Amino acid sequence: xxxxxxxxxxxxxxxxxIVMMGNNLYLTSITLNGEPSIEHxxxxxxxxxxxxxSQVFDCEGLLLCILKEDSRFVVLxxxxxxxxWIEPRYSHRPSGWDRFSYALGYVxxxxxxxxxxxxxxxxxxxxxxxxxxxxxxYDFDSDLWTTLDVSPxxxxxxxxxxxxxKGNTYFCAAERNVDVKEVLANSLICFxxxxxxxxPLLPLPFSGGYHDYTTLSCVREEKLALLLxxxxxxxxxxxxxxxxxxxxxxxLWSKFLRVATAGFDSxxxxxxxxxxxxxxxxxxxxxxxxxxxxINIIGEAGYFRALDLVGxxxxxxxxxxxxxxxxxxxxxxxxxxxxxxxxxxxxxxxxDENMSRLVLLEGNQ
Length: 365
Description:
The protein has 1 helix and 26 strands. By secondary structure, it is mostly beta strands. Strands 12, 13, 14, 15, 16 and 17 form a 6-stranded antiparallel beta sheet that branches. Pfam families: FBA_1. It comes from Arabidopsis thaliana x Arabidopsis arenosa. This is F-box associated domain type 1.
C-alpha cells in the first residue's frame, strides 16, 4: 500500500494498529468481538525499499520513524500520504547501536500545531566525570536544531520508549543518583514541548525494582496506561494501571487489570515491548516476548489468546513493535523555500563543545 493511497477505515468492532516487523510497517486490524481475530491489511511503503525502520513512535496518527541504516528520520501521516525527512546534525551509533531516545510532540498555536522532535543521549555513569548528556530539539517551523539547557535530576534508560499524549511526551524514569542495578524505572516524567522543559519526577503506583519491566501506552489520546511485569516475588506477575488525571506536574492512577500469571497451567504469557489496551474488553494487547510473530491478548480470570501474524515479514530476527492507530487529518508542514534561518552563535558554541566531548567519549569506549 503506497503512501498517498487512502487507508481503509476501521470496521465496526475492529481496531487498527501499526505493526513493525522485518524493519517494515504494516497496517493491521484486530477484532475482539467473539473469538478474537487478526488481519494483516497491507504494508506501508512510504520509503525506498532499501530503507529499514528500526523504531516507530506514534503521535496522534503521525509516525516518527527511526531508520536502521540511515542517520535521517522521517515523519509520516499514513492517512494523508505525507512525509517529511529530517536531517540530524550528527550521528552516534557505537557498534551500530542507536543510543538515542526520541519523542514527537507539538505546541498548540492559533490555527495549527507546531511539531517538534526531541532526541537525547544520556550516559549516567556513577562517576560524575564520566557522565555525558546532550538534549536537543528540532522545530518543524524553523527547520533548526537547538541544544536544550538542562541539568538532569532524572535518569531515563534508552530502552524506555516515549509515549505522546496531548502534545507532550512521557517516559518511565528514576532519580539520577539511584543505582541502575537496583532500580531501572520507578517514576514518570513529562517533557512539555511548549516550555521545552522536563517536569518533576511523578510517582508510579508501585515500588519498582531492577527486575520490574515497565512500559507506557496511550489510551484513546486521553490517558496513559502503565504495564508492570516482574519475576521476583510473584513470578511473571502482570499489572495494569490507567491515569485518572495527568498533567505535567501531577498524575493519579487507577488499577485497570491484574493478572496473576502463576495461575496459568503451562505457558506463561509475557508482553515484550509496546502494548495497548481495550478498556471495554478489559484486555492488554502486545507482542509475545518469545515469539516475534505472535500477539498476546491478556485479560481477567486467566483469559489469554495468542494470535499469529501470517505472512512474509522479512528478517525474522528484527525487533517487533506495535501501536494503536487512529487516522489523523493533521498535515505535516514542509520546510519553506528560500534562505534558511541561521543558528545563533551561542548554539554553535554549545554544539562544538558537545561534539568535542562526544568524540572524546567515543574514543574511550
